Amino acid sequence: MYRIVASDMDGTFLTEEHVLPQENIDAVLRLRELGVLFVPSSGRQLPSIMKTLEALPDEALAGSYVISYNGGTIHQVGSREPLYSNALPFEVVQRIFDWGLTQDVGYHIYAVDGRMWGHRLEQDEVDYINGAMDWEPLEQGDIESLRDVPIAKILYAHQGLPFLEDLRSRLPEEVYAGTDTTISSRRYLEFNPTGVNKGTGIAWLAEHLGIGLDEVIGCGDALNDLEMIQVVGCGVAAANATDDILAAADYRARAACEDGVIAEVLRELVEPSRTEA
């Protein structure tokens, strides 16, 4: 019997336009009735996640948890103090920032406390993130002002999966040392602290709650969901998922992100598991 459904946000729980389908709202409420926790798991920061989830009734997430920064931070809903968090050394962030200046990329830089700074962002990227998260420009063009700020992650922004895959293959080891890299939303190359990913995040939460990973469903569509898909009892790929996620999944949803992936997970996986139990 499943006790947690963890889901990526953009491209899985939400549509490509960051809209929450009504089918998923209804499904999360039904999960709550069944005593199953719904746990958003995102590369975003907590304030952005909670802003997007305002369409959910309060009772849908009451008592649940949120995994942010690709597993780097975990909060209980309603608390701004993390139960679990990680940060990158400033010297690592500086190396990544400096190398990126030689490439055709913009930046997101995220603080553990949820603040985000953007730099060299193209207008299409500004349009994409506006409304989804609050951020401020890095006016001076360097990151010295962030030296004493705990940084959860830094990412390169450039729309286009082939470009990001090529960029990742060309990264000098001395640049990304101390980090694990992943690609998300087909527009970001992300740098997280070594050993931090959605898989380690959901494993920490399950252990914290005394729940076995075989009792967890994890849903995703992109490379930053891979470890979560692999570690849980049932990994679910949205129909719009990338090939590596489709190959790794235990269950391939017929629904794409526009159609209500969590509604299908409820119908095809959660409710049958309760009957079997």
Query: Which geometry do the CA atoms define?
Result: globular
Poorly predicted sequence stretches spanning 5 or more consecutive residues: none
Q: Which percent band covers the strand fraction?
A: 15-25%
Say how many strands there are.
Answer: 14
Strand order of the largest sheet: 8-7-6-9-11-10
List the helices and strands in order.
Answer: EHEHHEEEHEEHEEHHEEHEHEHEH
- Counting helices, strands and paired strands, the structural category is alpha/beta
* Radius of gyration of CA atoms, rounded to a whole number: 18 Å
Concise overview:
With 277 residues, the chain is α/β, with parallel strands linked by helices.
Written description of the protein model:
The structure is a single chain. The chain is α/β, with parallel strands linked by helices. It has eleven helices and 14 strands. It has a six-stranded mixed beta sheet with strand order 8-7-6-9-11-10. Strands 2-1-12-13-14 form a five-stranded parallel beta sheet. Strand 13, helix 10 and strand 14 form a beta-alpha-beta unit. It is globular, with a radius of gyration of 18 Å.
